Amino acid sequence: MPKSKISAEFKKEWIKADLSDLNSVKIIANAIGKVPLDVFIYNAGIWETKGYEKTTQNEIVDIINVNLTSVILIIQKLLKNIRKGFSKKIIFIGSTCGLENEGSDSIIYTATKFGLRGVTHSLRDYLRDDSISVSCISPGSIASDILFKEGSSVALEKYSNERIPVSDIISIINVIINSSVATCIKEIHIPALKDTGV
User: Fold this and answer.
1) What does the angle CA 189 – CA 164 – CA 153 come to, to the nearest 5 degrees?
2) Is residue 139 over pLDDT 60?
3) Three-state DSSP class for 165?
4) Is 188 helix (H, G, I), strand (E, B) or coil?
5) DSSP structure string for 3-56
6) Mean of pLDDT values over 89-95
7) Residues with Cβ < 8 Å from 186, sequence gap 6 or more?
8) What are the chain's domains?
């Protein structure tokens, strides 16, 4: 009898791979092999730390590879696995920086997060007949340094209610994972309440 939702019991295995190096795509695909994938979540992002004009060519390429190129190549390699999965969900973690008029001065990061939304929409149409849903969650300021197990109250207290606890993002991911195959959740924008410009 098919399960109605994703089981909390799942195998965890770390795959060491540097997403700025496109050879990592083969490493990941080889490690996964032919295992069916119920849910694929891509949560990776780096940005320029010295400002646009001081960012080197190599740093720019690394940002684009991690935030955009790798996800396109990894999905291409793992589509057979996702097609064999039960839930068939692809979830990309974007950023409110990838939304219109957000006002970020991280030029390369913003461009790649815009690009990730484009991948989401085009891939969703491409995979519609396979009943694979493709969603993009675009959060704002997250208290990412506070571990999930520490609880949302710790994050809220540290950042005076100005950053989103990781548990909120996980709750939203669970909504997508537990939605039926008839449901298409395209995009969810989650700015922190105190974020401006979004």
Assistant:
1) 150
2) yes
3) coil
4) strand
5) -SS--S----------TTSTTHHHHHHHHHTT---SEEEE------SS-GGG--
6) 97
7) 120, 121, 124, 135, 136
8) 38-190 (3.40.50.720)
